[in-house]
Amino acid sequence: MTTLLEKVTRLNEIGIALSAERNVPVLLEKILRNAKLLTNADGATIYTVLPDQKVRFEIIITGSLGYYHGGSSGEPITFSAIDLYLSDGVQNNRHMVAYAVNNKTSVKIDDAYVAEEFDFSGTREFDKATGYRTIAVLTIPIMNHEHEVIAAMQLINPIDSITQAVTTFTLEDLQLSESLASQAGVALANQQLMENQLALSNSLIRLFAEAIDEKSPAEGNHAKRVPIVSEMLAEAVNNTNDGPLKKIHFSDDQLYELMVAAFLHDCGKLITPSYIVEKKNKLETIIDCIELINTRIEVMKRDAKIALLEKKITPQVYEKEIQDLENNQKLIDRCNTCEEPITPEIEKLIDSLVFLTPDEKEAVLIPRGNLTKKEHVIIQHHVEITQRMLGQLVLPKNLEEVVEIASNHHEWVGGGGYPRGLIKEQLSLRARILAISDAFEALSAPDRPYKKRLPLPKIYEIMEKMVKEGHLDPDLFEVFQKQNVGQEYVKHYCAPD
């Protein structure tokens, strides 16, 4: 026979176990099973209190019947939730569990078939269907630190350890159950607080990503898509059975940390000037300089016309000037939209045009992309801003690598990236995953107004070149290709081509 001291010792052990559990369904099951053991009850049920003033069945166990529904059993509970209040707004105090929850008090009944203060019709229906006989019932509310009832447990038919007969719950059973309920309340409340904090953190992270994407329509949904690619590649690494990465396996915490970093990797762009982030053509700045240039050309055409009318130039000279202006205008248009490769001949011609300012000449002659050197410096600065912004956050231990992962997504494994020019050995594997994900999403995005949509083979061709040039991790890119990460991503998030 178990002594009171042994039960109290067991109660302390249960408290330690409950405080360490982070999974709510598992926690509920531990609470119920331990309450059942402490009181030697044959049956036990645990409920949770819902925001809509109902009490939901979570787990039901009856040992002698082999009955186990809810929890990890895989068997659904078909019983409806219990209303705490009747339709007229009065407390549903005829139901034992509702009474215990409404009044924040434990209730002990020695024989459910004799007791008149509560409605046990549902219990009798269960007994009739199963051949069971409910006798003693003990219901205990479970409260949080604010004295709010968040759950309840009900124990049925304690078994005498010697005679194996059903007996009644003792005062000791009640006190031990209430002590367990107190520990359970703390454990459940702590877990709920942690889940609420996590939900708040996740919503704020997504809010940041939303703000980044909304600030820059040209970036599409980049901040929300990069985490998707990152997670797919990290899972692909976990599933790799050969090659240099076969022994790598990211835990759930590490995957979550990568997701947070991926959502926040471009938060520095919140202060990057919109005209740079949104830039579609080379001559766009705060205003579109192509319009100024076109106006100057029209003025020069008008001046040539006046000179012709005043007979200061011949018709032949006039025709040549107009033709030259129109040819130059077309060339500038093609260069501006990146349709014309910048050759030494074009560079020499553009440099000779007196109606272009030095800044306009620099912009027109950008050999690749549409950003000037000055604009490149400004947009690259977003990584340092990201590092500075994230560095000011008080991050929990499970997110302490977020800053490193997020702020190194433009570093190259061969050196030469920005902002610090780090090399592979100085970069975490997850930072290198983010770098590949960032590049792939930018290349595959179907909604960038400043570039044409690229087919997957062309994207891979560009990324293979980036690998050869020491920009991207070759081992990770091999996994990316072998496990068809790109194909799976574009199938769900891009156009069919």
Give the helix/strand layout.
Elements: H1 4-20, H2 24-39, E1 41-50, E2 54-62, E3 67-70, E4 82-83, H3 96-103, E5 107-109, H4 121-130, E6 137-143, E7 149-158, H5 171-215, H6 222-238, H7 252-264, H8 274-277, H9 289-309, H10 315-336, H11 344-352, H12 358-364, H13 373-391, H14 402-407, H15 429-444, H16 456-468, H17 474-482, H18 485-493
Antiparallel strand pairs: 1-2, 1-7, 2-3, 2-4, 5-6, 6-7
Please tell me about this protein's structure.
The chain has helices at residues 4-20, 24-39, 96-103, 121-130, 171-215, 222-238, 252-264, 274-277, 289-309, 315-336, 344-352, 358-364, 373-391, 402-407, 429-444, 456-468, 474-482, 485-493; strands spanning 41-50, 54-62, 67-70, 82-83, 107-109, 137-143, 149-158. It is α+β, with helices and mostly antiparallel strands. It has three domains: 4-194, 2-Layer Sandwich (Beta-Lactamase); 216-276 and 375-493, Hypothetical protein af1432 (Orthogonal Bundle); 281-370, no CATH class. Strands 1, 2, 3, 4, 5, 6 and 7 form a seven-stranded antiparallel beta sheet that branches. Helix 1 (4-20) runs antiparallel to helix 2 (24-39), helix 2 (24-39) runs antiparallel to helix 5 and helix 6 runs antiparallel to helix 18 (485-493). It is elongated, with a radius of gyration of 35 Å. The model has no long low-confidence stretch (mean pLDDT 88).
